[in-house]
Structure formats: C-alpha cells, structure tokens
C-alpha cells in the first residue's frame, strides 16, 4: 500500500466524523436546553471529568471485563463452531436449539444471570460472553461448511488428518468468516458491557454515566457517552489492524484474483 493510498483512506475515515462533529458544534452552539448542552460545554467538561484517576477506577475495569467476556466468547464460539460445522448430525441436532437461544436478546438475560452469578465481575463477564458468542459461533459454522471440497480431498489423499488438517485447512479456510463474526461481536460486547454495569455495579463506564444522569450532571453524562464512542472507534481500529495482519494471505489472494 502506497503512502498516497494510506493517506486517502485515513482522510476518508476521519472525514465523516469531522463533519458530524462540526454539525453538532454549530447546531448546539446556542442551545439553552438543560438536557442538550452545547458541544463546547461537553468538551470543556471532558478533561475535568475523565482524569487519570477516573480512567483507572472506571474505564480500565470496564475494558478488562469486556476483554474477559470477549475472549471467553471467542474460545467457546470457535470451539463449538468447529464441532457443529464439521459434523452434520451434530449440526442437525443443535441447530434448532442454537436458533432458539440466538433469538433471545442478551439484555433480557441480565436479571437471570444475576440470580446465579451474583452482581460481581463474573456476572458482567458472562453477560458480555452470552451476547458475543453467537456471531462468532454462527460465522465459524458457516466458515467450516464452506471449506473447499477439493482441498479437503487433497488433504485426505495425502493422509493429512486430525489436528494438522484442522489447523492448516479448516481453521485457515474459515478464518475470514471467524474474524467477521469477531468484528460483529466486538460492538455487541461494548453495548453489553455498559448495560451490565448499569444494572448493578460500583464502578465502570456504564455505572459512571448512570450516576451522572441521576445527579443531573448532564454535560458530564454526555462526556461519558462521547468517551464510549471514542473507545468503540479505537477498538474498531485496533481490531481492523489485527485482522489485516492475520488475513494478509487472504487479502493478497483476493487482489491476485481480481488482477488476473
């Protein structure tokens, strides 16, 4: 990728957010609404609210819960997806059950999970994992089912079976689908992280935003929403960077097929 192409992509990435912030700035400049303060007021409060101490006491615990729930969902989703996608009988048995549980909105499960997991970090991690697991699981199943039959026959002919076949053929072929599911799960995880902290918590980003709202500290509350969006944007950038590194072979193959 040339510097010119990278600069153009970076420009496209920041252009729309910059326009939206400009519209927000000018549209709210003369606002006297208590609940919709000017963006300038929110930005003024931002560094006062989100100090280093508050970042350590509220934002870091939220990110650790998100990471734990997301990694748990990734491990469970990929392992179960490989099993379901590789065995037709298992897929026929489990598919109706998976579709049933997938249709249940994860926030509805929060009170249920609280009953057996309490209100500590375990509950929040399970809530995040319960919502993140579905896109990873279903995309892994579809990725495994779409493994090239010719490559599968070739592996069989050369006696490549077991873990070697799983690692070099199945996981490698399904990895674009798996990472697509992980990207979808990341945004779900951020939403569930905030929701779980709103229900029962003594720290965290969701807890802090709710406390600002209940004490009518509206600019501070909006600064928390702004921080949440910023974290989501940065996590998305980090994931895209990791995805491009992991799937460099796949993107190279796609470019070669387009150019041929």
Short description:
With 260 residues, the protein is an all-alpha fold. It is 83% helix and 0% strand.
Molecular structure report:
With 260 residues, the chain is mainly α. Helices cover 83% and strands 0% of the residues. The mean pLDDT is 89.
Residue fraction in strands: under 5%
The residue fraction in helices comes out at: over 70%
* Rg, alpha carbons: 22 Å
Shape: globular
User: SSE order, as H and E?
Assistant: HHHHHHHHHHH
Structural class: mainly alpha
Low-confidence residue ranges: none
| Number of β-strand runs | 0
Look at the structure and give the mean pLDDT: 89
**Major sheet characteristics:** none
How far apart lie the N and C ends? 19 Å
How many helical elements?
11
Topology:
Layout: H1 3-27, H2 39-49, H3 52-86, H4 88-102, H5 110-117, H6 121-145, H7 149-157, H8 162-199, H9 205-214, H10 218-246, H11 248-259
Helix pairs in contact: 2-10, 3-4, 3-6, 3-8, 3-9, 5-6, 6-8, 8-9, 8-10, 9-10
List keywords for this structure.
11 helices, 260 residues, mainly alpha
């Amino acid at each position: 990728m040339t510097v010119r192409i990278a600069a153009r992509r970076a420009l496209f990435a920041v252009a729309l957010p910059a326009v939206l912030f400009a519209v927000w700035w000018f549209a709210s400049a003369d606002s006297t609404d208590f609940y919709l303060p000017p963006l300038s007021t929110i930005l003024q409060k931002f560094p006062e609210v989100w100090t280093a101490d508050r970042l350590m006491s509220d934002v870091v615990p939220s990110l650790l819960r998100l990471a734990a729930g997301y990694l748990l969902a990734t491990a469970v989703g990929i392992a179960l997806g490989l099993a379901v996608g590789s065995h037709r009988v298992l897929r026929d048995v489990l598919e109706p059950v998976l579709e049933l549980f997938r249709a249940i909105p994860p926030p509805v499960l929060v009170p249920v999970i609280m009953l057996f997991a309490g209100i500590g970090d375990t509950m929040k991690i399970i809530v995040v994992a319960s919502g993140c697991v579905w896109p990873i699981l279903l995309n892994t199943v579809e990725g495994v089912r779409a493994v090239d039959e010719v490559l599968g026959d070739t592996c069989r002919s050369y006696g490549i079976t077991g873990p070697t076949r799983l690692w070099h053929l199945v996981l490698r072929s399904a990895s674009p689908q798996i990472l697509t599911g992980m990207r979808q799960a990341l945004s779900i995880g951020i939403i569930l992280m905030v929701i779980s902290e709103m229900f029962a918590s003594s720290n965290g980003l969701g807890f802090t935003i709710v406390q600002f709202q209940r004490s009518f500290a509206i600019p501070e509350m909006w600064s928390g929403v702004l921080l949440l969006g910023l974290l989501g944007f940065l996590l998305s950038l980090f994931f895209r960077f990791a995805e491009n590194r992991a799937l460099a072979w796949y993107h190279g193959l796609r470019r070669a097929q387009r150019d041929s």
